[in-house]
Design a protein that fits this description.
Order of helices and strands: HHHH
Number of helices: 4
Helix content: 40-55%
Distance between the termini: 16 Å
Structural class: mainly alpha
Shape: globular
Number of strands: 0
Largest sheet: none
């Protein structure tokens, strides 16, 4: 799942996927509220259903974000 989210984040943030690491800080990646909203739209499109951006915004690292997506907590 990390690899899938990594690619989606790279596309959303317009950065190389290689720059996204599991323990990487979302703040360091410049994942602001607008980028998070864009990522939510992408996740909804890819996985179907509604994604709760407020819950995903609680993540501080890439790994935390991936864990939320895997667990469906962000939905």
């Amino acid at each position: 799942m990390f690899a899938e989210v990594q690619v989606l984040m790279a596309e959303t943030l317009r950065i190389p996927a290689a720059d996204i690491h599991p323990q990487g800080s979302l703040t360091d990646l410049e994942m602001d509220s607008l980028a998070m909203a864009e990522l939510c739209v992408v996740l909804e499109s890819k996985y179907g259903g509604k994604v709760d951006g407020d819950r995903l915004a609680q993540a501080r690292t890439v790994d935390e974000l991936v864990t939320l997506v895997e667990a469906g907590v962000g939905r």
